Each structure stands twice: as C-alpha cells, then as structure tokens.
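Example with several molecule types.
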Amino acid sequence: MQTKASVDTVYGTKVTVVGVGQVGISIAFSIMTQGIASEMTLVDVMEDKLKGELMDLQHGLTFLDNMKITAGSDYALSAGSKLCIVTAGAQMREGESRLDLDQRNTNILKDIIPKLVQYSPDTILLIVSDPVDLLTYVAWKLSGLPKERVIGSGTNVDSSRFRFLLSERFDVAPTSIHGWIIGEHGDSSVPVWSGVDVAGVRLRDLNPAAGTSEDTENWNSIHRQVIQSAYEIIRLKGYPSWAMALSVSVLTRAILNNTRNVYAVSTFVKGIHGVQCPVFLSVPCVLGENGITDVIQQTLTEDERTQFQKSAETLNEVQSNLVF
Amino acid sequence: MATSVEKLKTEIQTPVAHSGSKVTIVGVGQVGMACAFSIMTQGIASELTLIDVMEDKLKGELMDMQHGLAFLGNIKMTAGSDYALSAGSKLCIVTAGARQREGESRLNLVQRNADILKGMIPKLVQHSPDTLLLIVSNPVDLMTYVAWKLSGLPKERVIGSGTNLDSSRFRFLLSERFNVAPNSTHGWIIGEHGDSSVPVWSGVNVAGVRPRDLNPAAGTDADTENWGEIHTQVVQSAYEIIRLKGYTSWAIGLSVSILTKAILKNSRNVFAVSTFVQGIHGVEQPVFLSVPCVVGENGITDVIQQTLTEGERSQLQKSAATLNEVQ
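Resulting structure tokens for the full complex:
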C-alpha cells in the first residue's frame, strides 16, 4: 500500500462523553448509530469498563459509517472536542441530605470541567448529570466559558415524554405533536399548555380548560405521568437510558451540524420570565455550532410564570450554599 | 360532548392493526435491548414487539424507548409476556437463552437452551406462520438447528446470526492494521461461531488487493507478519469484552440490526450467517454453520461458494461432525 499523506484530525466533528454508566454509553451508541459525529472519545475512571465498551462499539463499525473511537481515563484524549457531554455524577446515599449530594457532585465536576476546557478551550459543554439545572450552573462557574456555551440537557427529555404521552391520546406520531415542558427538569417542571398543538390546532382551542384544575378531560394527568416516568422506569428496569440517550444525541447533532433547531434545554435565565437570580432553567433555545444563540419568548400564564420563578429561587438558595 | 381528540381529528378509515415491517425480539437482556435500540435508531422496522418473562423489565424498557420517539421516525412498540403480541411479525429475533453455569458441560447447556426454545419457537410460528426466525442465542449454530426442528419451517427461513459478528470483528481488526475504514476492508469468517471459526484468508482484501498477494504466507504458520493473530484476537474478543464490561451488546446489536434491515427491505446483501450446510464444502451431516449467504425477504436465497483451502475445508467438516454428535 502506498502512503500519500499523513492524516491527523484537524477538521471533523469530535465529541467527548464523560462517564460510561448506562446513560453515558447509551448516548455514545446513539451518536454512533445515527452517524452524528466523526470522532468520539469516552472518558471515565474505570479502565476495564472503558476498554470493554470501546471494543464492543468498535466491533460494530463495519455495519456503519466509520468513526474514530477512543477511550481512557486521561483527559488528554478529549483534546480538540467540539462538544463535551458530562454524564458523570454521584447517586444519593442512604440518609444523605440533598445539600451533601449537591456538594459531592460539585466536587466531582471540579475534577472534570477544568480538564475538559483545558484540552478543548473552544468546546461546548452539555451537562446531563442530575440535578441538571444546578450542575449546569456549577459547570458554568467552573469552566470560565461564556454562558452560551454551557448547556444542560434540561427538559428536552421531559418534553419528549410529554409528546409521546400526548401522541397516545391523539393517536398520531409523536413527532406530529408539539408540546413544551420548561423550567426545572424533574418534579417541578412546567408544562406550557398554550403551546400544545397538532397541525397548528391548539389543544386550548378545542378545550379552553386543558391543563387547569377545571379540566374534565384531565390533561394534567399527562404532565404528572411525565414526572412519574423517571421513577417508574427506575422501578421497572433499574435505570433510564434510551430516551435520555436520544435526547442528548439529537442535541449533539444540532450543535455539530449548526442546525439551529429549537430545543428545551437548560440555560442562564436571569432576566427571562421575571427571573432575577443567576440560575439555569430550561426554556426553548435555538442551538447551533456556537451554542445557544436565541431564547424563544413564550407567553406564559401567571401561574406558569410564578412556578418558573419559584424554581429559580429554590435553585438560587441551593447554589449559595455550595463551596466551589 | 365531543372530546378534544374527536374535535381535532375526523376519521377517514381505520388505521392498520399491524404494519408491513414488524419485528419481534424475544429476550430483553443486554443483547436483546441492544438489538431493539439499534433497530429503532436506524429506522429499520415500523413495528417492534418485545417478549420476555420479566414483566416489569419489559414495561420499563418499553417506556424508556417510547419516550425517545419524539426524536425519531415513529415506530409502534409493544411489550409483554404474551406471544399473541408477536402476531404478524415478518421477523422474529430470538436472543433468550441460558448462560453457562460454573462447571457446566457444554452438552448440559445445550439441553437447557433447547428446552427454553421449546417454550418459544412453536408459539412464535403459531402467531406468525409466515415469519422468518433469526436465532442469536448461543451456541448459535446448535440453537439454529434446534429452532429449525421445532419450527416446522423450511430451512431457508431459519437463520442464525452466526459469524456475521466474527466477520465484523475481523474486519475491524484488519482495518486497524491497514488504517482504512472497517467497511473498506473485506474479510470473511465462516463455520462455527466462536472458538473454531474459520478465517478465509484468500478472501481478505482492500480494494481487491489481498494480503496473500503482498505476503503469500499471510495467515499460515510461516507468516512473519502474523496475520493469523488477528483471527486469534477475534476468537478472544467475546471473552475479553465479557471480562472487561460484563457482557457484549453493541456489536451483536448492530450485527442483528443489519441482518434485520436486509430481510425487511429484501436488499439481497451477502452476510456470513448460520444456515443448513449439508452438501456444502463436503459436509455430510445435517447441521447449521455459517457461510456467506444472500439474504432477502424470504430468507436465504443463495449460498456463495467460496474456494476453500484443504485446511479450511477440513476445519469446517470437523465442526460439522462435532455439532452432529451433540445434536
């Protein structure tokens, strides 16, 4: 074989995934099967697991478009990443307070974030670790990056769950139903009922009470199901992985391909919907190669605004107790 | 009073109960779920049913996959322990099976797995009489034979995932040496999936150029470049991955999804899959082993006749004899 020129990754789309637990490795496989990145690096502390997962992924490459995959505990491997996805995080121990857990997670990120930025100064950070809104704030503080380049996976997956459950009631494809959940990812997320529609026909036009306490069709039960979903899935199969992986891979594609699609992701929301604290919450954002370029200003009801602001205040209090 | 849904939609006709390309996967362990997620993300099937005995796990996995549908083309998914859910499948993928216990003989494992298939295969065929069966459970060549016997289906419609995965590992490892994309490197491993698989060195090439043309000893004992080591690595891979991460999933998931795509779309691609090989390469026994096959909507339509060396032929025949004894 003749060699023409040496090849180094100069251009191309490189993604790093930190953490190869169920969520991290599902994200990696999702990105791989959908041909979203040309290069992917997996970083974690468990060397054997990393090596095993790397081999297993590589052995499937003949069935897909080629991509370069590396794995290891050395962050130098992540150099040159356009996007770094952080899934690493601690799980709550028995009897541990929320504040203690938050501090432990802050300490974990202290070890990860500066190294990622050191090796890829131009990278965008996508934080998946829970509680995602808090940890996106922490990651931003630790990174020194402009806020547009630190994004939390936020309520993108809540919105996807919402749309799937709505699609079951409407009996049309989930991608033909539109609906947004914003605010805090998890128990206090905010469904924006005015935005739920099929083919431009709003649910609120068909049923003005939809989502309120007067609603005889009880559409609100769908939002409750969304919140319960994560706990339910954990109870049934041990951990959530697939939906989260698809959520993150679609955000990855938007960033790498500069698609400028709109997704509900966690961003800096001081000044939005009357929020006065420096916190990260999910709102619909335009995503591109340089991160978040725009925030979509939805018209919220008084109730929705209040809920949103309340989440902001709670987050701000927790943040003020953290040691960086 | 009309509901919001009734107000929104006016029905023109009833939607179909089962769409054209329905796939059932039996077994939602790591392999089964990797197959399911592979099929889902690559938009290969329009309907997917998961069957197992663990109801909670089934429900949890179903929910988790469905919650990602807003990011993909729609696919109808169902899950449960009732085989009636599998009705109308074009393809049934069987991943369920027992794992070897400590100190268990191979023969004992085979008997346990045969009993598991007895509970499965007839039900699948009962609910989808026109289906194809794709067997993944190990030891796959034996299990494919057992599934065939239990199914009453013509042999062309019972396929084992076989050495499709071994070939993929082979091509990946070759691609690392050549430093080109894995799918620009060609190479076939045939015969028994696992320890006694047969690498066909005469077929290994990049852009039609064979290592044997560049190094006539390639793959033999006299080979100073030790190309044969690559085959050894392939055989070791599964054990290595199991040791490192506990199980293999992704590569087999992709291997199965690509076979699924070929079947559902009648693409007539060629893959190394386990098929009935009595009469091929001098095999006299009624066994299943992997050879390159043309795969389409009605199953295996052709077997590619490779020119094997004397050594390769005798290895295949030896595997056939061993399998026949166990059977």
